[in-house]
Amino acid sequence: MPKPTQDHFDGSQVHAGGRPRARLLFILVAITGLILDVLSKIAVVAWLDEAHPVRLLGGVLTLRLIRNSGAAFSLGEQYTVVFPFLYLAVLIFVLVRLVPRLGHPGWATALGLLCAGIGGNLIDRLFRSPSFLHGQVVDFLQLPKWPIFNLADMMITSAAVLILVLTMIKNVSLSGQHYPHPPTKPPKS
After folding, report:
1. What confidence tens digit (pLDDT) does each residue in 65-92 have?
2. Which terminus of the chain has fewer CB atoms gathered within 10 Å of its CB, N or C?
3. For the chain, what is the largest distance between any 2 Cα atoms, rounded to a whole number of angstroms?
4. CB under 8 Å, gap of 24 or more: what pairs does 60-66 form?
């Protein structure tokens, strides 16, 4: 069994062998997710006509190409130039502060999905028209009564859900330490 080492951020004891595996999983998830997002957007832009959406699964899913200059739900369209800097700040924080502490596969998956999603939308902001830092994000997936989104958005949302499960339900830290559930008060007699 690998020798325990001290997590230099929260003082917990973790096994050194879990960190390289968790980091490798993070890298695999992040790169795979980023590639899937970029390739899906290239394919959609090449093959989908903005004027002719494609209905699938009896209308449950529609492929509808739009270019979004805002954030989620097209909010903040006048602040397009701010989004790339926010994306970069989050990526730097995750890569510098969180990834070195990884020791749990769930956290590696969540952070990999988060970085892939942010990276996919950052690439659009940097390199798509109308100009550098003002690029419009390619969205193309539409569900009934829901805003149009892309794979990057799905990855970010999945990461958020997984982080909530890990922290609120599983009580597991980045390093893999399981925190005990808070004690419940005994009923008053």
Report:
1. 999 987 766 677 777 888 999 999 999 9
2. C
3. 70
4. 60/143, 60/144, 61/141, 61/142, 61/143, 62/141, 62/142, 62/143, 63/140, 63/141, 63/142, 64/140, 64/142, 64/148, 65/138, 65/139, 65/140, 66/138, 66/139, 66/140, 66/148
Return mean pLDDT, the chain.
88
Give the CA dihedral 160, 165, 167, 169, nearest 10 degrees: 160
**Residue 149, Ramachandran bin (φ over 0: left; ψ between -120 and 50: alpha; else beta):** beta
Q: Which residues are known catalytic residues? A: 139, 153
**CB of 166 within 8 A of CB of 155?**
no
The three-class DSSP label of residue 100 is: helix
Q: Which two tokens stand for residue 100?
A: 């070195």
